[in-house]
């Protein structure tokens, strides 16, 4: 799973500002560290959704440094990030992916919807159409 580093800074109004060095569009606020971490998860999801909507490559997370916190993506969200980046790298548009998978375009829209609960077997088929293999490991 991908883990994005975040920085939490106490603001002048006694709230905590959360930013992500790798995803500049991400910003959130919490009343304390615990709520800031919860807001960071939501803020990162929203910011990454912008990348999906705009069809822009998503930066990979940088190493987590001392003093930073980490926001993990779910396994499915991580797969979607890798899939979007691979489609962009190979210049495969949604219509082309629909043709390769022999499905209608709305199914590809859901496949590339960061918040949609896509089935893993459909993700695996999509990666195969890009000549990539989806692998899972437990650490």
Automatic annotation (TrEMBL):
Which protein is depicted?
Antitoxin HicB
What does the record give as the organism's lineage? Bacteria, Pseudomonadati, Pseudomonadota, Gammaproteobacteria, Pasteurellales
Domain HicB-like antitoxin of toxin-antitoxin system per the UniProt entry, residue ranges: 4-123
């Amino acid at each position: 799973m991908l883990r994005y580093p975040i920085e939490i800074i106490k603001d002048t109004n006694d709230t905590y500002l959360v930013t992500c060095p790798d995803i500049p569009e991400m910003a959130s606020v919490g009343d304390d560290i615990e709520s800031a971490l919860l807001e960071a998860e939501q803020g990162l999801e929203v910011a990454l959704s912008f990348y999906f909507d705009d069809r822009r490559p998503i930066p990979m997370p940088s190493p987590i440094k001392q003093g930073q916190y980490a926001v993990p993506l779910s396994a499915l969200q991580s797969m979607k990030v890798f899939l979007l980046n691979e489609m962009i790298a190979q210049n495969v548009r949604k219509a082309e992916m629909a043709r390769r998978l022999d499905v209608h375009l709305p199914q590809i829209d859901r496949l590339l919807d960061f918040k949609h609960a896509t089935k893993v077997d459909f993700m695996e088929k999509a990666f195969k159409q890009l000549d990539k293999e989806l692998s899972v490991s437990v650490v």
